[in-house]
User: Fold these one by one.
Assistant:
Number 1:
Amino acid sequence: MRELVLTPRFRRAYRRLVGKNPALQPQIEMTLRRLAADPGDPRLKTHHLSGQLAGLHACSVAYDSRIVFLRQSHPETGAEVLILVNIGSHEEVY
């Protein structure tokens, strides 16, 4: 399992998204569990981003919901850490 680090921006976007659509919360939680277990899980449709978001990755939560994250190594343990940067619709996060 990878450690998930939630940025303040992610937390705000999460609260806003779940506030608008509470039915997404279970899907988001399932996606986060899958992401922590295996970011390459085909159900997540994880992909590299380019342009201004180069170096980041994104995965799908639902048809029009995405999580943007950064993959890093923990400085002390070397374990992979996923820093959750943003969540929202395709238009909001890209």
Number 2:
Amino acid sequence: MQVVIALIVTPEGFPLGYEVLAGNTSDKTTLRTMLGKIEAQYGKANRIWVMDRGIPTEAVLAEMRAADPPICYLVGTPKGRLSKLEKALLALPWQAVRAGVDVKLLPQEGELYVLAQSHARIHKERAMRRRKLKWLWARLKQIAAMELEREELLMKLGV
């Protein structure tokens, strides 16, 4: 079961309120309702909505941009679109926003794409890959020491 939580905070990060949405609900169906509910409860304000890439649909994002005043958001870019932006992002320089965090900013088609990298996250992912690689090397050594028929060897390597 999935639980969807919406957290409302001040610009300084202090919590104002929260909503717990029904579990086992498609994320894409919750945003439009949440936008209306928060506006009804807290009034119109200059808010920034921060969401996972699976929450908004392109139609809801278009409605947010067309609202009066426009509703600002920061949302993960779908991987398909990110690969289309890769060449333009590669050409841009990294800018430090704080110690250990760098960003690239790409304005395009009325949107501002933000590519962020955290040095701590880079180190964590490298360590995860190294652990996995060490395990794979150890497993290959185990398999190499076994006396296997061709088919058995292929099955073990496939696993």
Number 3:
Amino acid sequence: MVAHASMTAIRAEPPAEFAGPLFDWSAFEAAPLARDPFDFLIVPGFIRPAALEALNRDFPVIPGPGNVSPAGLPYGPAFAALLDELQGRPLRVRFAAKFGLDLEGAEATITVRRHCEATDGHIHTDHRAKLITVLFYFNQDWPHAGGRLRMLRSASNLEDYAAEVVPAGGAMLAFRRSDNSFHGHKPFVGERRILQLSYARPSALVDYQRRIGRLTKPIRRLLNMS
């Protein structure tokens, strides 16, 4: 599980401006699970508008690019409430039912990212340890051509895609990791706020975390270890 950051002293209650559900579960239930070219789910506006505003206010301070654990980062109470919700069993049960997977015993890991660099977005499938990857997007809007994640039909063609996710407005993307779960985006440099929740096989995850910590970014790309 992910340890909370240094601002735990102000975690007690979510801010009043989003008293109520963080997520739009009715939209989640209504959204179809796509099967082509692999299992994925896109829910625009999954994070409710009032919650999204508070989460952006309390988003972790991250000085540079890269996916990092929220442990040790400064963030506010709204983001702390989100982390609590993501680590709860009810959310796990909903994703398990939607994808028809048994996630009991799967290890949940969380990373956050604030800045995107020009070398991000390469086509990959995610590491084989992962069962489901869930991405949450926090930018209020997205007028840019780059940075829009695409569900791809191959490892070689960024233009051959089944769907494209606008990384803003509280959108959520979830997909089942497989040998053909290719995804990527066109280059973008700037602030692209994202949280990644992954459910992974515990034994494989330990090996993955140990090895990825020793590798440089270019080597991780070659091994599809994002």
Number 4:
Amino acid sequence: MWTEALPIVVYSTCTEVAVPAAAWPRLYGSLQALKGHVQEYPGCQRFDVFFRAQPEESVRVHCYTTWDTLAQLEAFLERGYTFERLLADVGGDISLERSLVMEKVF
């Protein structure tokens, strides 16, 4: 008899920004501190940052967080210190391009 296993689901955010090259060192240091902070939140599995230098003297940054449950992700988005909140505090010419909430099924 065959049985089917339910999919394993985790909940994630994805934020993409373009950062002027001059602002990158300050943002990078702030991201290191943010990663250490967010990883202490209950249910946070991962905090990943990917970046790519771009020809127009800017840096493209993708920031992902991954959570055990939807409730933990929602609490983080409502009350936590998110990448978007960090960007508002850092200020400057950083442009938020998109922010998504997603489910990962594997």
